[in-house]
Amino acid sequence: MTATTQPQHTNRLIHSTSPYLLQHAHNPVDWYPWGPEALNKARQEDKPIFLSVGYAACHWCHVMEHESFENQEVAAVLNQHFVCIKVDREERPDIDDLYMQATLAMTGSGGWPMSVFLTPDLKPFLAGTYFPRTQFLQLLGAVGDAWENRRKELDTQAGHVADYLKQWAAGPKAGETAISREMIANNARVIADHFDARLGGISGGGTNKFPPSMSMDLLLREYRRTGQKRYLERVELTLERMAAGGIYDQLGGGIHRYSTDLYWLVPHFEKMLYDQALVADIYLHAYQLTRKPLYARVAGEILDWVLRDLRSPEGGFYSTLDADSEGLEGKYYVWTMPQVEQVLGADDARLFCAYYDVTEAGNWDERFGHAPPGPKNILNVKRDMETVAKLHGLPMETLRDRLRAAREKLLAERSQRVPPGLDDKILTSWNGMMIASLARGYRVLDEPRYRDGAVAAAGFVLKNLRKDGRLLRSYRRGKAHLAGYLDDYANLIDGLLWLYETTFELRWLETAAELNDLAVEHFFDEKGGAFFYTADDHEELLARAKDSRDGATPSGNSVMAMNLLRLAVLLNRPDLREKADSIFKTFAGQAAGQPGSMERLLAAADFRLDPPREVAVVGPPDDPRTGVLLRTVYQAYVPNKVVALLDPTSPAAAEAARRVPLLAEKKMLDGAPTAYVCRNYACQAPTADPAKLAEQLQQ
Question: Taking residues 617-644, what's their average pLDDT?
Answer without folding.
Answer: 97
